[in-house]
Amino acid sequence: RAKQAGRDTFRFFTAQMNTDVLNRLELEVALRKAFENEEFVLHYQPKVLLASGRITGLEALLRWERPGHGLVSPALFIPMLEETGLIVGVGSWVIATACRQIGQWLQSPIGAVSVSVNVAGRQFLEGDVQSDVVTALEVNGVPAELLELELTESSMMANVEKTISTLQSLKRLGVKISIDDFGTGYSSLAYLRRFPIDMLKIDIAFIREVTSNPDDAAIALAILSMAHSLKLQVVAEGVETSAQVAFLIRHHCDQIQGYFFSRPLAASAVEQLLLEDLRLRLPPGPLPQKTL
Ligand code: C2E
Ligand code: MG
Ligand code: MG
Ligand code: MG
Fold first, then answer.
1. How far apart are CA 241 and CA 152, in angstroms?
2. Which of 42, 43, 47, 78 has the most ligand 1 atoms within 8 A of CB, as the residue to mutate?
3. How do residues 243-282 score in pLDDT, each as one tens digit?
4. Which helix (DSSP H) or strand (DSSP E) does residue 179 occupy?
5. Which ipTM value was assigned to this complex?
6. What is the pTM of this model?
7. Ligand positioned closest to the Cα atom of 76
8. How far apart are alpha carbons 110 and 288 in whole angstroms?
9. How far apart are CA 291 and CA 1, in angstroms?
10. Residue 110's closest CA among 266, 254, 268?
């Protein structure tokens, strides 16, 4: 009987494993086609400066308009893009597309908008992010100051020396650098200071219960205090409630990003927000052609 059960268990796992392998294969094939068929698109989520209540920049977030599946979240396909190395090509496309968008806004009544782009670890090590950035800025006539790169702690730690030297050349161009998902890796801020960074994004994991969980509040406060003494700006990710906003204002967080203000939006929708935001900054009347 035990033998029988063992055999059934074995068979069950084999079938399950086959399904997983097939699903993964199917996903990989679909992702390769997606790139060729131009099914990727960028959405943009505003970051708000707490001191002014105004939009201070946008984060570009990758979306996959998969036929028959709707809009697919990056959580479901970025890991596969990384595993297969497809992230290198898709990542260059993201940088080029974000810069083209910044260039278009620059030529419109919206004017100068700063946009951050997520860069994957493998893309940073195997691709040529430096030349992707230089080309994209040049082709679109975009000042480097309007582009920001977001890297996670773990991708920075994958090859410390190469990362530091690439980031230094990007910094010399004028590009801004952020550490994304801060607090979820195992590195200390003191160590990360070796990298030329401007900004630190507190991971949503610590923000979610920041007003109800004393441990999370303590971590958020420690990050804010240490970051500020190192002259780094701090963005809180995943801010959804006014209680979180009040907490973050009280503790001098610089910027917030989250559903409380806006979800990530298609370019045309975020344009409406940017135009409204612009009207709030200017005296009443028609928008001047060249602004900011
Ligand atoms: P991330 O860079 O930390 O981006 C923030 C994520 O939090 C986004 O998820 C955003 O939609 C979500 N978010 C924003 N505000 C809130 C909120 O108030 N509540 C909640 N629950 N979530 C919020 P998204 O767009 O699904 O992206 C997930 C991750 O995928 C990103 O995390 C980033 O690591 C990766 N990713 C997205 N686009 C790209 C890309 O172009 N290249 C690379 N390499 N990775 C990307
Ligand atoms: Mg990010
Ligand atoms: Mg993040
Ligand atoms: Mg994240």
1. 25
2. 78
3. 999 999 999 999 999 999 999 999 999 999 999 988 877 7
4. strand 176-182
5. 0.98
6. 0.92
7. 1
8. 10
9. 79
10. 268
